[in-house]
Amino acid sequence: GAYFSNYSAWLSDPIGIKQSSQVVWPIVGQEILNADVGGNFQGIQTTSGWFQMWRAEGITSEVELYWIAIGGLCMSAIMLFAGWFHYHKAAPKLEWFQNAESMMNHHLAGLLGLGSLSWAGHQIHIALPINKLLDAGVAPQEIPLPHEFLINRELMAQLYPSFGYGLAPFFSGHFEQYSDFLTFKGGLNPITGGLWLSDIAHHHLAISVLFIIAGHMYRTNWGIGHSMKEILEAHKGPFTGEGHKGLYEILTTSWHAQLAINLAMMGSLSIIVAHHMYAMPPYPYLATDYATQLSLFTHHMWIGGFCVVGGAAHGAIFMVRDYTPANNYNNLLDRVLRHRDAIISHLNWVCIFLGSHAFGFYIHNDTMRALGRPQDMFSDKAIQLQPIFAQWIQNIHLLAPETT
C-alpha cells in the first residue's frame, strides 16, 4: 500500500475508483493483467478491504502507510526476540499455562480491556476527526496531520464542541456531554454506507470498561474472587448427573481438548463475522465494493469451516489419547457419550428432513416453470419466502437506538 497502491486516488473518489496495490511490470506481455481501475491508474484490482480499513483508521496518505510499515517491522523484530527469549532463555513451566484464573484476569483486563480502550482512544482522537473531514469533502492532503488532533484541543473542539469542556464532564459524571463523538445512532452512515464511526468508538469504550471490570473477577493470590473449578462444579442441572465435574482437569491437562474448544469457538466466530460484515459493514465504502464484500465473506467462511473441522479432529484425538472414563463418571461429557446413538440418529433424520424439503422447493419451482406458471414459483417476484426471524431481530436492533 505504501509504494505501489493508488490509495490517495481512491481516497478522493472511493466509489468511482477501484483499489489496486500491485502493478505488473511489462515483461513478456504480462502487463495485460493490469486493469484500468480509474483515476489514471492501471494495476491488479485488490479485494481485501485494506483501503476501507485504512480510511476508517484515519490514514490519509501513502507516507503514513510507509511509517506504519516501518513501525510494524520494528514491532515484529521485538516480538521475534521475545519469542526466542521465552523459549530458550526463560521458558515458563507447564504449570504456568494451567493457571486459568490469572490467565483470565490478564487477558480480560489487559488484552481485551486495555486493548479496546486504546483502540477507542485512537478512534476518538485520530480516526473520528479525519473521517468527519473526509465525509465533508475535504481533500486528504488538506487535512491536518494525525498528531495535530492529539496536541491541539482547539482544533478538535471545532469539530466536536464537547472537547472544549476537557475532562470536567468525565469526573463530574456528566457523560452525556460527550454525546457528539460517543453516539448511539444505529444504522449506517448515508455518505459511506458503513456503521457510524462514532457508534463504533462508543462501542469500544463501553466494552473496554466491561472487560476491565471482568479482569478483576477471578481469584489468584488473594482470597477474593471466583475460582473457575468451583464455578464449573457448582453448575449442576436437575437432569445432568455430576454436571461439569472433571471438565476443569480435562481442559488444564489435555492440549487437544483445549485446542478443540478454541478451534470450534474461533470457527463459529469467523462464520458469524462473515455474515455480520456484509449486513453491517464496519468500514467506510465497504458496502458498495461488491467484489470485496464477496471476497471477505468467502475468506471468513473458509477460515470458519477449517477451524470447526479442526475442532472436531482435535476433539477426536483428545477422546482417543487423553480421555479417562474413570475420571468422568456421569458428568456432562460422559452423558453425551452414552447418548451418542440417540443424538446421531436424531441429527440424521433432521438432516434428511431439511435436505428433502429444500430440494422440494427446487422441484416445485422447476415444475411450475415447465408448466408455464412462473407466478406460482417461490421467488422474490412471486411467492416470497421472507426471513421473518432475521427481520424481527434487525427491527429490534433498530428500535434500541430510536428509543434512547
Automatic annotation (TrEMBL):
The keyword Repeat does not apply. One of its GO terms (biological process) is photosynthesis. Keywords: Chloroplast, Membrane, Plastid, Transmembrane, Transmembrane helix. GO terms for cellular component: chloroplast thylakoid membrane. It is a multi-pass membrane protein. InterPro entries: PSI_PsaA/B, PSI_PsaA/B_sf. Signal peptide: none annotated. Gene3D superfamilies: Photosystem I PsaA/PsaB (1.20.1130.10). Coiled coil: none annotated. The keyword Chloroplast applies. The chain crosses the membrane at residues 65-87, 108-128, 200-218, 259-279, 299-321, 342-363. It is found in: Plastid, Chloroplast thylakoid membrane. This is PSI P700 apoprotein A1. It comes from Actinocyclus sp. HK345.
